[in-house]
Write a structure and sequence with these properties.
Strand content: 5-15%
Distance between the termini: 76 Å
Radius of gyration: 28 Å
Strand order of the largest sheet: 6-5-9-2-10-11-3-12
Largest sheet: 8 strands, mixed
Number of helices: 22
């Protein structure tokens, strides 16, 4: 201890070393706690655990190297007399206390983030930092925030008091400027080494996703995600020959009518159906986090969706259907634009995303009233700007009267309220003799899972089961009221999820965590049956238009599932970096660093196989994603 004390008396920079040791210790404790929490999902061996902590220290040091830059510069320029002054002593103690509190606060935030998403901080955390109103309210409504913050303060105070005397000894140090300059130069070399040697994927060492995430540093991942919210496809991903892949994707989509061989990735084609068009109304309800596993049709035995369990037997149910991503904006992107997900952020959140060829545009050409209805504030995730820029009328929480808003939480009004407003809008259009197409986004099945008291037998705020069951209740009420309307028989009701309730698993792209229902209901128009063709959200738009017998010029990637041969079924799934194609009991996915992986039996044994076993499938996948990137980056999917 005496040696440590003398070290602190000799150098003012010893405070940085002290905070580093506390930081490394706190990170190791958090890593251990998360490892124990996820133990059942880990491939535990001495080697893998050792690598988790070894790489974890490397990533922790990389983050700290950036964090200490302003402190090192401050200690460099401050003269000895000023450094030893009472004012500086107060400033250093206060800064040390605040830094400790920030460290422990971030670690608690990492625990809660892992609890919800099963990963360290990523681009979702970046989004949450931007939309502070919803996120702060959600935290307040979901957690005992006062107790948590008080607990963090107590731990911080205890740690500070234990280290205070040791830190105070550093004020005795009197170092010449040249010595300070050498130490600062050495310290500032660390972030340069980190920048060159510790990339965003430095924690990727295992096929087990949880092990990789445990080796990561949450704050470091946060800033990496902030920097890489939109990845340059042509820089990071394996590329094929554009001319060849253009031919592949055009052949898949039969896109020959309006394109020549010289036009790369021109997928414009005319969809022609015999007979008259059916100008039925369409209500497309996108349900927050409605995993297929919640429904009895997909094996659930708890009966938490009693209405949907019965209702889904009365229409067209697609049982082999998958979300394209893990975020609401990914679902809305696929449902509206029928385009494969491109890496990084969803098109919904990117600039210059107006006048894109979209589902609403096809209806607008026929005089439909097209509207996007959202129970929350539509500035969240840029939803209002995206839909307004693509011709939709917007209705969100700000448009409701005080009488309408009988309940709301951090994310918006309860589902029964947005669905009642949908009835009101449909009644108005019917009176004006105008067909309508409405896209609705619900909110109740989202943390904090609160909703009006007394509607279902699960108390609000007790967990996701209640959120799912309340949405089920709201749909029962909505359909019951819709059946009393004169427009009911001429309306197509479509129910689909935006994504699953959770996507974390041991593997990179767990296919089962993308499984969602697609249900189409129109008793006088669509017969009740099941369809098990492999498909995904990009197929919804052309399937709806096919049921209406619409003929139109298409730029959609999706296919009409009622006319698609079963052996051509496929699903596109992704997270914000990995881009997958599921077909013929194989999963092929592209990753940054130009990597390609092939998985056999992705819903079962999940066995990695050689890429030579899936050459044609890889070519098909590359055609989907490389063409989607080209079309987006060259803004080819615009309507005139």
């Amino acid at each position: 201890m005496a040696v440590v004390a003398r070290l602190f008396e000799q150098s003012r920079f010893s405070g940085i070393l002290l905070f580093l040791l506390i930081n490394l210790g706190g990170s190791a404790l958090l890593r251990t706690a998360l490892l124990i929490r996820q133990l059942a999902d880990l491939d535990v061996s001495f080697y893998s655990i050792a690598l988790v902590f070894l790489l974890g220290i490397v990533n922790d040091l990389a983050f700290f190297s950036y964090l200490m830059i302003p402190f090192a510069l401050y200690l460099l320029v401050l003269p000895n007399a000023a450094y030893q002054s009472k004012l500086n002593r107060v400033l250093v103690f206060a800064g040390f206390f605040v830094s400790l509190y920030g460290l422990f606060f971030v670690e608690m935030a990492e625990w809660t983030f892992w609890d919800e998403f099963g990963v360290r901080f990523n681009f979702i955390a970046v989004d949450y930092l931007i939309y502070t109103h919803e996120v702060v309210r959600n935290i307040i409504e979901s957690y005992p925030l006062g107790k948590i913050l008080s607990g963090i303060f107590i731990v911080t105070a205890a740690c500070f008091l234990a280290m205070r005397k040791l830190l105070a000894k550093s004020f005795k140090a009197s170092e010449p400027f040249l010595s300070r300059l050498k130490i600062t130069a050495a310290l500032l070399s660390l972030p340069l080494i980190s920048y060159v040697g510790v990339g965003q994927s430095a924690h990727q060492f295992s096929a087990n996703t949880y092990l990789n995430e445990l080796a990561a540093n949450g704050p470091y991942q946060f800033f990496a995600a902030f920097r890489n919210n939109e990845l340059d496809y042509r820089h990071f991903y394996k590329l094929g020959d554009d001319r060849q892949l253009s031919g592949v994707i055009r052949a898949k989509l039969a896109a020959n009518a309006h394109s020549s061989d010289k036009e790369l990735y021109n997928i414009r084609r005319t969809i022609k159906h015999a007979g008259e068009e059916k100008h039925l109304n369409v209500i497309l309800i996108t349900v927050e986090s409605l995993s297929a596993e919640f429904l009895t049709q997909f094996g659930n035995t708890e009966h938490i969706t009693p209405f949907m369990d019965e209702w889904f037997e009365q229409g067209l149910l697609f049982t082999n259907f998958y979300a394209t991503g893990t975020r609401t904006v990914r679902g809305l992107e696929a449902l509206t634009l029928s385009i494969p997900p491109t890496p990084g952020q969803s098109i919904v959140k990117r600039p210059d995303n107006g006048n894109l060829f979209n589902l609403g545009h096809v209806f607008q050409q026929r005089g439909y009233d097209t509207a996007f209805l959202y129970g929350g504030r539509g500035y969240f995730d840029n939803m209002n700007a995206f839909f307004a820029g693509n011709g939709y009328r917007i209705i969100d929480q700000t448009d409701f009267t005080d009488e309408e808003v009988t309940f709301s939480n951090a994310w918006g009004v309860s589902d029964d309220i947005i669905l009642k407003r949908t009835l009101k809008e449909a009644d108005r259009d019917y009176q004006n003799r105008r067909p309508f197409f409405f896209q609705i986004m619900t909110t109740s099945n989202h943390r904090p899972y609160t909703y009006p008291e007394g509607k279902i037998d699960i108390p609000p705020g007790t967990g996701r089961t209640g959120g799912v069951k309340y949405t089920d209740y709201a749909l029962r009420e909505f359909i019951g009221l819709a059946k009393t309307r004169p427009w009911f028989d001429d309306t197509l009701f479509v129910v689909v999820a935006d994504h699953c309730a959770g996507s974390a698993r041991k593997v990179d792209l767990p296919v089962d965590r993308y499984h969602i229902p697609l249900f189409i209901y129109a008793p006088k128009q669509v017969p009740a049956k099941r369809n098990d063709i492999l498909s995904s959200q990009i197929d919804v738009a052309p399937t709806i238009l096919g049921l209406l017998n619409f003929s139109y010029e298409s730029q959609f990637y999706g296919r009409d599932l009622m006319r698609l041969p079963k052996d051509e079924g496929r699903a596109l799934i992704s997270n914000y970096q990995k881009l997958g194609l599921v077909k013929n009991n194989k999963l092929v996915y592209l990753s940054p660093q130009q990597r390609i992986d092939v998985i056999e039996d992705p819903l079962g044994a999940h066995r990695p196989v050689e890429i030579d076993s899936a050459v044609r499938l890889i070519e098909e996948e590359m055609a989907y994603y490389q063409s989607a990137d080209y079309i987006w980056s060259h803004r080819l999917n615009r309507y005139q």
